[in-house]
Amino acid sequence: MTHPVRIDQANLPDMTWDNAARGTIRWKTLISGDVTASDTLVCGIALMAKGDTLALHSHPQPELYFGLEGEVDVQINGTAHSLKPGVALFIPGDAVHGVLAADQPVRWFYTFAADAFPDIAYTFA
């Protein structure tokens, strides 16, 4: 059973990959069935400082990015797409995507149609 959930990102810790080869990106998980009384949706805020990376990867679930702050090129299947405030990028399931390097601080909202973040099967290139 699920319930309405209110999350304040200011109260959440930054998360990161255990393996730096996956990238130096940080994120805050807002909604995910393993940490909130929710299902069918995972979302959070991605955070990159200048020089941070998100290694090229794919996962079966489609993903949506919505730019909040800064500007960065997101590689999707070999093509660069500019993400900046107010811009949404739809990333199809199984598309290879990532950020080679941020040249300024950047933040974006991301979401997946999945019950919980651990359900997303990442494959890194």
What's a concise summary of this model?
This protein is an all-beta fold and 125 residues long. It has no helices and eleven strands.
Could you characterize what this model shows?
The model has no long low-confidence stretch (mean pLDDT 96). 22% of the residues are buried. The strands form two sheets. A six-stranded antiparallel sheet has the order 1-2-3-10-5-8, with no helix packed on it. By secondary structure, the protein is mainly β. It is built from no helices and eleven strands. The protein has one domain: Sandwich (Jelly Rolls). A hairpin with a 2-residue loop joins strand 6 and strand 7.
Number of domains: 1
The shape, in one word, is globular
* CATH architecture type: Sandwich
Kindly report the average pLDDT value. 96
**Gyration radius, rounded:** 14 Å
- Major sheet: arrangement of strands: 1-2-3-10-5-8
Tally the helices: 0
Helix content: under 10%
